[in-house]
Amino acid sequence: MIKKKNIINLIKYHVESDDFQFRNEAVDIARAFDQSGDHQLAEYVMSLLSSASTFVPQGNILESEFFKRVELDNDPLPLPTAISEDVKGVINAINHGLGINKFLFEGAPGTGKTETAKQIARLLNRQLYIVEFSELIDSKMGQTAKNIVEIFREINTMAYPSRTMILFDEIDAIALDRINSNDLREMGRVTSTILKELDKLSPEVVFIATTNLFEKFDKALNRRFDAIINFDRYTDDDLIEIAGIMLESMMKKFQNTGRDMKLFKKIIAKLDPIPYPGELNNLIRTSLAFSNPNNKFDYMKRLLRNVLKNPTDLKELQKEGFTLREIEILTGISKSQVARELKGE
Length: 345
What we know:
Elements: H1 4-15, H2 19-35, H3 39-49, E1 67-70, H4 81-96, E2 102-106, H5 113-123, E3 127-131, H6 133-136, H7 143-157, E4 164-168, H8 184-199, E5 206-211, H9 219-222, E6 227-230, H10 236-251, H11 261-269, H12 277-289, H13 298-304, H14 314-319, H15 324-331, H16 335-342
Parallel strand pairs: 2-5, 2-6, 3-4, 4-5
Antiparallel strand pairs: 1-3
């Protein structure tokens, strides 16, 4: 039920022209109506607050130097089925609203942990804030732990917690194994502080951390997360298909680029090892960006330089299993001329 303080706060924020807090209080009132069974009235209040089909808070919720707001995009994020299913499970768990809200993404660099967090925020229509560790870590004894307490205080007292997601990217920068740390006292203090603050985290806030050093993580910290998702689950076939999706997306931004997906995937398959998506994305983008605009398949040749020292050597290309037609595309030499030169004519 609505309490007197809700009405007083509503009037107060209106008089003070504090639109941010006014909206926050109105949302709390709508939630109270909904919980008491007056769903139509709750929907009516929300419709009055929203100028669009959904209510999206305006302005920054977290204003301190410890947080950076992340702009989200609609770029594709192809993932292997196993990881994709786990990500769907994370989204389902959050949507159920049962307080399952703390997740750890672990895996090698470039496996898509950070980008996945961004996509989850976009799909859940939440503002994403990343913690700035450069501002958080302090050389003064005990100050880093104090900063962590302050960060979680801001998180737990912010407006619109159900519309926010917090990302601790590469959390291992501040939370490694307390026993094996070279600076046992300070690292133990920092890690212990994180443990305590995670226990007090608001259930409405989605908290995601990523790490490349999972094996060095403090086991007690692992237990604070509701789920741990392993991103080191890419097969070569996964990576080849992902490379194709990346190329299709990038080609929309490049004019006069030739498309031969079979040849492209053949080249990607010859990379040893095939890079994880982060590096793969950079490799493809760089090959396209540096390609000759007058040669629509020049990016293929540039990609091939990661496999062969001389991507125009006809005998080497033949040895690698490329057909006459594929060699023609890669070198610009006609098939008939390629055939003659390979025969030594």
